[in-house]
Structure formats: C-alpha cells, structure tokens
Amino acid sequence: MENKHTDEEEREKIEIGLLLEGIYRYYGFDFRNYAYSSLRRRIWHRVYSEKLQTISGLQEKALHDRACLDRLLSDLSISVTEMFRDPGMFLKFREEIVPVLRNYPYIRIWHAGCSTGEEVYSMAILLQEEGLYDRTRIYATDMNQASLEKAKAGVYPLEKMKQYTQNYIEAGGKQSFSSYYTAKYNSVIFDPSLKKNMIFAEHNLVTDRSFNEFQVILCRNVLIYFNKELQDRVHKLFYESLSPNGFLALGSKESIHFTSYADCYQVISDRENLYMKFT
After folding, report:
1. Can you list the domains of the chain with their CATH numbers?
2. Which of 78, 80, 172, 255 has its CA 20 to 30 A from that of 219?
C-alpha cells in the first residue's frame, strides 16, 4: 500500500513537471521554481474546474486552448491584496522613508507583482498626502494581464471600503478616505488623478530583467510562492534595480534575513520588513 502511495506521488510530480515545462517552452511562463505544495494545490483546483481527471489532461488542454491556459495562469499567480494592507508598513513608510524621499528631486517606485492594484493606489494616496506624488512615477507590474487590466481600471467592490477605510486610518491617513473615490451601484472608482503618474506593464519576475533604477521597490507576499533558488534570483534583480540607499519593502511573511543579500541592507523595520540598501 505504501509503495502504491509513493508511486502515485512520483507520477504526480512527473506530471506537474511536464505541465510546467510545457507551459514554459510553449508560452514562456516559468513556474518551475515555485513552491511545490502551493503549485500542486492550485493545479489540482484547475484540473477539477476544467472537469478533467488528470494533470496530464490539463497539460493537453492548456497547450491547445489559450483560454484554459489563461485560467490556469490566474490560478498560479493569484494573490490576496487590499488597500493599505498591513497598515503598520504604510505608517512606518510615512514616518521613516518619506522624510528621506523628500530629498530627491524625482522619485521612481516599483510595485513588483502588483496584482489588481490596491496597494498601488494606496501608495499614490500616501504620496499625495505627503506632497510627493507630483515628482513620483509609480511602475506597477505583474505577469497576469487580467490583474493588470483591473488595476488600470481602479474599480473595486463597495463592500470592501469599510475594511479599507479602517486600514487607511491605521496607516496614518490624513483625510476622509471616501474623498478619494466615487461610489456607483456596488462598486467604487478611484479618482483618475491618482493614476496620472502610474505606469502599468506586464513583467515576469522569473524571466524578465531590470528596466530602471528605483528609489523604492515594493514586492509584498509574492516571494513566499517561490523556492529558495528563485527567491535569490529575484533578490538579485531587486538589488541591481535599487539606487544606493534605496528602500525595499517585503510582505508580512517575508524577510531579507537568510537570503544571499541579507548583508546588503540595513534594517529600517524588522516588524514591517522594510530595508535600505547599503551604498
């Protein structure tokens, strides 16, 4: 019985490996170094959703049906986000990083893995309140085109605003949060002026290179889905993309500690995972 169980696990690993290799070689999306347990769970979800029996069946469908591939990509790149998520990070950003950014004539910020954009609009609001948005460019990137389209639209469910308002207050918000959006039916649309200095673009952290030098990079709760090898590759990308004394913000379950670049940063806040690159 144990051998049968082991054989099934081995076959499953082979099937997953072949699926990921096929997606990479045919479409160019590379999930081969993502954390296995999370990948496995999401792949099986897609197998059942497509009313298939096996991962091999999903591979066949994904390679021949672009719509199926897009649904699988959404599963594999899904992320949970919200406005002013982890308010303590945004508060610390106001207190510790904004005073440094005031010294720059021009500020470039990269939201890597921006998902549907809630944190991008949060940063725009924060910078506007601190008088820095007019000299800032926010580059918001993600590998998921569907998520980027939602981010560009800036339309979010009205039911989320109660939680977002609470986050905003805890993040040190200085105005009425409702002044930044207009409610219509069951949705809200954020003020178009917040988008004036945003640039949305498709970028894959796994396969694409740096495209600019930044004073701030935020990549929050993305690296937890990567294995150690891929995390180190992305940290190299971030390090090379940050200006001297640039700032890196990671997610609540992530840290620069125990990575190959741990000695390259000064800790601004261990609790909020904010770091400054040494010159």
Report:
1. 2-76 (no CATH), 87-154+192-277 (3.40.50.150)
2. 172
